[in-house]
Amino acid sequence: MGRPGACPLLTRVAQANRDNRDQQRTKRLYPEQGVEMLEFRDIKLEDRNEVQTLICASGCHGADYSFANLYIWRKIYKPKVAFMGTRMILDLGRPGFFAYPKGDGDPRPSIEAMREEAHRAGAKLMMRGLTPKTLEELKEYYGEDAFIISEDRDNADYIYTTEKLRYLKGRKLSSKRNHLKHFEKNGPWHYDPVTSENLETARAFVEEFYKEKDDPDLAAEAVAINEMFNNYDALGFMGGLLYQNDQAVAFTAGTRLDQSTVDVHFEKALPGVDGAYTMINKCFVNMVAEEDPDIMYFNREEDMGLPGLRKAKESYHPDVLLMKYYAEEK
Predict the structure, then answer these.
(1) For the chain, where are the E strands, in sequence order?
(2) pTM score
(3) pLDDT tens, 297-316?
(4) 129 is a domain residue
(5) What's the structural domain count of the chain?
(6) Reduced to 3 states, what is the DSSP secondary structure of residue 60?
(7) Domain containing 246: what range?
């Protein structure tokens, strides 16, 4: 697969935001190095257009730093954002720990500014979230020996073609087709897109899901999913509810990552409802594909190193396992 989605040119709105910011900002320099200091702040909803544009400009990217993910998880992970030219820089809350700068053009000014921030805090620079494309970019500008590179398998993204998830063809996916048959045998069912009219119904279903799970490890996710519901339209979410025997049994929601890729942020189904996960996945993909034929890929995010989640994601046989990397300065 080539990179999911050819990105458009930087939008006029995002460019105007940068021009205005650059005009208003007085450059602060590290006195010895002459490197511009970074001005970090909280992520705001108004940043959406610019962040999406810069992420898109960076090419094939992971779902972890999509604007929707950054915003709905901000209360948990507390990232800080700064902008430098055509690059976005994320401070991940630990001395010297940053995301690889998203955007286009020469990354060295941003990386050197992050390095100076790290050194001021008495730490080495550590960047996470590199993909094969951005790792190649880093090596192009810094060579093979400037950073220690380590693989981050637990945060690799699982990417599937729309065609695969819609039709579930072939022997490898026969078990998925069987799951659908089992679901259909258990009673009449239907799928509804989530809109402003049934948003609160979806919220009530998810709240009940968390109550039944009663899992402290899901507390952070519950905060993020509540942020999603509170900003559903503003963040560009699309989703669906699956019903069986007139009861909601599953929910899913995603956002568009780029011109041809959708990020599936959440997928929840009641325990004991055979085939519900498989069915809502298929229904959601069908809905998106019918509304936007340009969507060619679905990014179902990472498995976080959880064995059960890894098995479930691998069972769909991803077309791309988008590996992630750490880069630590030597």
Answers:
(1) 41-42, 80-84, 87-91, 97-99, 102-103, 126-130, 147-151, 157-161, 189-194, 238-244, 247-256, 261-269, 297-299, 320-322, 325-329
(2) 0.89
(3) 999 999 999 999 999 999 99
(4) yes
(5) 2
(6) coil
(7) 157-301
